[in-house]
Amino acid sequence: MFLLSDTKSIGTTFALAGGFAAVIALDLAAIAVLGIAMRWVKMTYAWVLVRVLGVLLAALGVDQIIEGLI
Description:
The chain is an all-alpha fold. The protein has helices at 10-37, 43-69. It folds into two domains: 1-39; 40-70. Helices cover 79% and strands 0% of the residues. It starts with 9 loop residues before the first helix and ends with a helix.
């Protein structure tokens, strides 16, 4: 989406704004569902999930940095 932000056409601007709005809506829905799901999940499982997802996110970040350097 950041590559589209450099263009000057109005159609691309609306497509970019729609993409950002879609991402925001998806994030809002995920937060709402997670808030409901956390009522039934034990705190230990939640901490394990946070740690595992944190490691996966760090690995993805390292992979993106290496790909950018290549």
